[in-house]
């Protein structure tokens, strides 16, 4: 990685990179413990907890697609401010909610605010950085910031006694309030984008373009399965451990989240250096091998062996630090310049994997138990390998038809 490139980033790009450190950090300090809160506060069973989390996430994904289109129509600033205001209100209400229905509504708006935020934040990085090398560096740094926050904040929350406490949602709301002010300041800087993308594409044409982009559709399908597998760490695994009667389960969950974040902090750029001469498809294959091993580890690990959970999470995290930045780079390379917001919004459909995982995971946990669930996710990993074989064929066909941006994918 060429760190000299980072010095050339405009201030608004740095806001998009560093803002996620604080917002996602405080988010991860409380959200992974949501399953425990719903179980302890309202005595919901596995599938009820999963259904509650899934409905909120599915609603957010459906909104996220249109948020991407609106990003190109209304402008990046408008969408970021809207997402920030919604997050402040939702997390504040979540801190005082005392009914299941209110919890579910607030969780839905929290998830929607995140889906609205993501397309314009990523589009700003693509808009303001001229070269693909600079954009790749920015996306790597952004993901690095997310995981530094994910590593430090949950562990700090456990040490301070905040994790698993409802009032901690006020901290998330406060961080988003500060972030709103910083974003407003960033857009007043001379280098900030002043308007939305000049070329406005009608929604019908957007759908037609996306439908015809076979490579994009294959990537979304594969990434949806990847997201489905990863999501079980924050939902189904937490439920599994909390219902097995383990001592200090909150501390164990906090340790796993810390392991996840710190592994990425320590190894992300090591993996980038190792993978830099490989094609994006090959990077994904390496990440999927690691992810498959982690799921087999979760399936076969004895419940009481804490180190087994930590080792499996370490393998999952190594796979994650390869896979998720690569997803953003893939979309950046195939998205037309006047439809970046659209492509990032549509690519967020892969979040359906995150959305349905808690419900399906809850059903499988209740019916068959944890080992069977993680054997199923292992088979999902194999399905991703099959899809990426199709992605490679689609890339070759695109290269034969055009000299467009895909030629740099190797």
From TrEMBL:
Recorded topology in the membrane: Multi-pass membrane protein
Chief place where the protein resides: membrane
Pfam family name, one: MFS_1
Gene3D superfamilies per UniProt: MFS general substrate transporter like domains
Transmembrane segments: 12-39, 51-71, 78-94, 138-162, 168-187, 215-233, 253-272, 284-300, 306-329, 341-361, 367-388
Keyword annotations of the record: Cell membrane, Membrane, Transmembrane, Transmembrane helix, Transport
Domain (Major facilitator superfamily (MFS) profile) ranges: 12-395
CDD domains (UniProt xref): MFS_MdtH_MDR_like (cd17329)
Top-level taxon: Bacteria
Protein location: Cell membrane
Name by which UniProt lists this protein: MFS transporter
Species this protein is from: Bowmanella denitrificans
Phylogenetic lineage: Bacteria, Pseudomonadati, Pseudomonadota, Gammaproteobacteria, Alteromonadales
């Amino acid at each position: 990685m060429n760190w000299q490139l980072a010095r050339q980033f405009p201030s608004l790009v740095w806001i998009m990179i560093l803002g996620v450190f604080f917002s996602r950090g405080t988010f991860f300090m409380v959200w992974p413990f949501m399953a425990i809160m719903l179980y302890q506060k309202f005595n919901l069973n596995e599938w009820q907890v999963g259904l509650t989390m899934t409905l909120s996430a599915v609603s957010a994904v459906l909104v996220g697609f249109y948020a991407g289109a609106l990003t190109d129509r209304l402008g990046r600033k408008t969408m970021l401010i809207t997402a920030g205001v919604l997050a402040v209100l939702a997390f504040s209400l979540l801190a005082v909610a005392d009914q299941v229905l209110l919890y579910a509504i607030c969780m839905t708006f929290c998830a929607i605010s995140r889906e609205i935020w993501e397309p314009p934040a990523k589009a700003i990085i693509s808009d303001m950085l001229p070269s693909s090398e600079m954009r790749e560096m920015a996306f790597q740094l952004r993901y690095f910031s997310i995981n530094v926050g994910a590593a430090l904040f949950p562990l700090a929350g456990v040490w301070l006694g905040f994790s698993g406490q409802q009032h901690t949602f006020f901290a998330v709301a406060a961080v988003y309030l500060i972030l709103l002010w910083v974003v407003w300041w960033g857009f007043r800087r001379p280098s900030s984008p002043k308007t939305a993308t000049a070329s406005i594409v009608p929604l019908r044409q957007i759908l037609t373009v996306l439908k015809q982009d076979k490579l994009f559709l294959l990537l979304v399908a594969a990434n949806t399965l990847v997201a489905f597998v990863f999501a079980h760490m924050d939902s189904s695994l937490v439920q599994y451990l909390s219902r097995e009667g383990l001592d200090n389960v909150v501390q164990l969950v906090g340790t796993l989240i810390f392991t996840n974040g710190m592994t990425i902090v320590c190894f992300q750029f090591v993996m980038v250096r190792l993978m830099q001469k490989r094609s994006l498809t090959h990077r994904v294959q390496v990440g999927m091998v690691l992810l498959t091993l982690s799921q087999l580890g979760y399936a076969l690990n004895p419940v009481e062996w804490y180190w087994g959970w930590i080792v499996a999470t370490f393998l999952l995290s190594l796979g994650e630090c390869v896979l998720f930045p690569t997803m953003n780079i893939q979309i950046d390379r195939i998205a037309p310049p006047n439809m970046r917001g659209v492509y990032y919004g549509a690519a967020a459909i892969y979040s359906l994997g995150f959305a349905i995982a808690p419900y399906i995971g809850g059903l499988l946990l209740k019916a068959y138990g944890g080992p069977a669930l993680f054997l199923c996710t292992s088979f999902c990993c194999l399905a991703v390998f099959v899809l990426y074989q199709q992605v490679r064929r689609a890339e070759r066909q695109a290269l034969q038809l055009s000299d467009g941006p895909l030629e740099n994918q190797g």
